[in-house]
Design goal:
Elements: H1 2-17, H2 19-23, E1 36-37, E2 45-51, H3 53-63, H4 65-83, H5 87-98, H6 104-119, H7 126-133, H8 138-147, E3 163-168, E4 178-186, H9 187-190, E5 195-201, E6 207-211, E7 223-225, E8 229-235, H10 249-259, H11 263-271, E9 280-286, E10 291-297, E11 302-307, E12 310-314, H12 321-327, H13 338-352, H14 359-365, E13 405-414, H15 415-419, E14 422-427, H16 437-443, E15 463-466
Parallel strand pairs: 2-5
Antiparallel strand pairs: 1-2, 3-4, 3-12, 4-13, 5-6, 6-7, 7-8, 8-9, 9-10, 10-11, 13-14, 14-15
Length: 468
C-alpha cells in the first residue's frame, strides 16, 4: 500500500513539475523564463523568445541547440565549397572583421546563443555563432578579400535570392498593404529555413519573423513588428562591394526589425554603417500610414522611394542605373536572365490584377510558373516560383554550385493580419511541387558533395503563423 502511494506521489509531482525536472535535481535555468518552442506545424517551428539580449540569445541557443548544430554543419560544408575558404577562415573573420563592429546589445545576444549551446553540450562557440549569422554576406566579403590577396581561391558565388512585392492603394482590394516574399536558396540550407521567431525584447518592439535556427535576424528578411512595420527584400544581382569597417548586414537587419517605427527609421538604420554585405532592395511598409517604400541599398549608391498608391516588386533586378553600372556586372538587356525575366513577370501581374490584389492572390503569385521570355508555363530559374534544379545547365546566372536551389519557402501577409502580429507561410515550393533529394543526386552525381546534408523539400500548405 505504501509502495502504491509512493508511485502515485511521483506521478503527481511529475505532472506538476515536468518529468525533466524529476530526472535531475536542478531547477530550469531562469534565463528560459517566458521562452518555449512548439512542435512543428506544416513544417514551421514556432519559437518564442523574451527578455534581455543575453536571455533572448540563451533561449535561442538552448531551445534550438540540435537545429543550430545541424545548420553549422551545413554551412561548414556549403560555404567553403562555394567560396574556396575553409570554416576556420570564416571563424577568424567573424572574430577579427565583424565582431569589432557589432554593438553591445547584439554581442550579448550572440554570446547568449553560444552559452545556450554550451548548456546543451553542443561543441560550438561564439565565433561559430557569428559566422553562421553572417552566412549570407560571406560571399561579398570573400570576393573583396580575394581581389586584394592574389593567389587565393578566387571562387565567388554571389547570386540572386528571392521574389517579392509590396502593394497598396488602388492596387489592393481594400486599399491597404499586401506584402509577399519567397526565399530562393540552396536546398541545403533552405530546408532548414523553417523557424518562426516571436521575439519580445526588453527594449524595442516585439517582432515576428521567419528565420534559421541560431540567427538573430531573419536572414531571408521577412518580418513585422508591433509598430506596424512590415519588411522584406530581394538581393541585388551580381553585386560587388564590401566595407570591412562597416556594420554587418545581419546586425542592421535585426536592428531595423526591432527598432524601426517608421519607414524613415528603417532606412536610417540600414544606411548607418552600411558595409555592402548582402546588398538588397528592401521593401518596407507602414500599416499605420498605408505607405510603402523601396530602399535600394548598394554600397556606393542608396536610393529611397516612397508612395501611398502603387507597388514595388523585387526579383534581384538592379533599379538605379548608376548602381547597376558601377556596382554590378549585370546585363539588363538579356531577358533570358532570371532577374530580368521575373521583373517582367511581376510587372505583368501587377497590371493584370490591379485593384484585386489580396492575401490569397499574393500567395498564388509566389507559385507562378509563367516564363515571361517564352510565354510558356514551365518552372525554372526564370519563374517567380524558382526551380533552379529544373533549369537547363548553363541557362542563366545560377551556375554551379547553385544547381540544387530554388524557392524553398514563402511568406505573405496583409494589413489586417500584420496588425495581429501574424503572417502566412508555406514551406517548400508554393506551387506544390516536391523536391526529392535522392532522385536529384542520382541524376546529377556532380552534386554528390551535398549528399550528407541534402534533405527532401516537400511542399506544405499555407499556414497562419504567430499572432498570439
Amino acid at each position: 500500500m505504501r509502495r502504491t502511494a509512493a508511485i502515485f506521489l511521483v506521478l503527481v509531482l511529475g505532472c506538476a513539475l515536468g518529468l525533466s525536472q524529476l530526472v535531475g535535481s536542478q531547477s530550469p535555468d531562469i534565463r528560459l523564463k517566458g521562452a518555449f518552442r512548439r512542435a512543428p506545424v506544416n513544417g514551421w517551428t514556432y519559437v518564442r523568445l523574451e527578455g534581455t539580449p543575453a536571455e533572448v540569445g540563451f533561449q535561442n541557443g538552448y531551445l534550438l541547440a540540435a537545429e543550430i548544430q545541424d545548420l553549422e554543419r551545413v554551412f561548414s560544408i556549403e560555404i567553403p565549397h562555394d567560396t574556396g575558404h575553409d570554416w576556420a577562415f570564416f571563424r577568424n573573420a567573424a572574430e577579427h572583421v565583424l565582431w569589432p563592429h557589432i554593438e553591445t546589445e547584439y554581442r550579448e545576444e550572440l554570446q547568449g546563443i553560444a552559452d545556450g549551446l554550451q548548456a546543451k553540450h553542443v561543441n560550438l562557440d561564439l565565433w561559430d555563432v557569428v559566422a553562421v549569422n553572417a552566412a549570407l554576406e560571406w560571399s561579398y566579403y570573400t570576393e573583396q578579400y580575394d581581389k586584394t590577396h592574389p593567389g587565393g581561391p578566387a571562387k565567388h558565388s554571389t547570386a540572386e535570392h528571392c521574389s517579392a512585392f509590396i502593394a497598396t492603394g488602388s492596387y489592393t482590394t481594400d486599399g491597404k498593404i499586401v506584402i509577399a516574399h519567397n526565399n530562393w536558396s540552396s536546398y541545403l540550407d533552405g530546408a532548414r529555413w523553417t523557424m518562426v521567431f516571436d521575439v519580445r525584447p526588453a527594449k524595442g518592439h516585439r517582432f515576428v519573423m521567419d528565420g534559421l535556427p541560431g540567427v538573430i535576424h531573419s536572414a531571408d528578411d521577412f518580418g513585422l513588428n508591433d509598430a506596424g512595420i512590415v519588411i522584406t527584400e530581394t538581393t541585388i544581382t551580381q553585386f560587388s562591394g564590401f566595407d570591412v569597417n562597416g556594420v554587418p548586414e545581419f546586425v542592421r537587419a535585426r536592428k531595423a526589425m526591432q527598432y524601426g517605427a517608421s519607414i524613415e527609421d528603417v532606412a536610417a538604420i540600414f544606411k548607418d554603417g552600411n558595409n555592402g554585405g548582402y546588398a538588397n532592395d528592401w521593401l518596407i511598409g507602414d500599416i499605420k500610414t498605408n505607405e510603402i517604400a523601396s530602399l535600394e541599398l548598394g554600397l556606393k549608391h542608396v536610393t529611397l522611394e516612397k508612395k501611398t498608391d502603387g507597388y514595388f516588386v523585387g526579383s534581384n533586378f538592379p533599379i538605379d542605373p548608376q548602381l547597376s553600372v558601377e556596382e554590378t556586372n549585370y546585363d539588363l538587356k538579356n531577358m533570358g536572365l532570371s532577374a530580368n525575366a521575373r521583373h517582367k513577370r511581376w510587372e505583368q501581374l501587377m497590371a493584370e490584377h490591379k485593384g484585386h490584389i489580396d492575401l490569397k492572390m499574393a500567395q498564388a503569385f509566389l507559385g507562378d510558373h509563367v516564363d515571361s521570355l517564352t510565354g510558356k508555363t514551365e518552372p525554372s530559374e526564370r519563374t517567380l516560383c524558382g526551380h533552379i534544379d529544373r533549369s537547363p545547365r548553363g541557362s542563366g546566372t545560377w551556375q554551379p554550385p547553385y544547381g540544387i536551389a530554388g524557392a524553398v519557402q514563402n511568406k505573405a501577409t496583409d494589413a489586417t493580419l500584420a496588425a495581429r502580429m501574424t503572417f502566412t507561410g508555406a514551406v517548400g515550393h508554393a506551387c506544390g511541387m516536391n523536391f526529392d533529394a535522392a532522385a536529384h543526386l542520382k541524376a546529377h552525381p556532380e552534386y554528390g558533395w551535398e549528399s550528407s546534408v541534402l534533405k527532401d523539400l516537400p511542399a506544405h500548405p499555407w499556414t497562419e503563423l504567430a499572432g498570439n
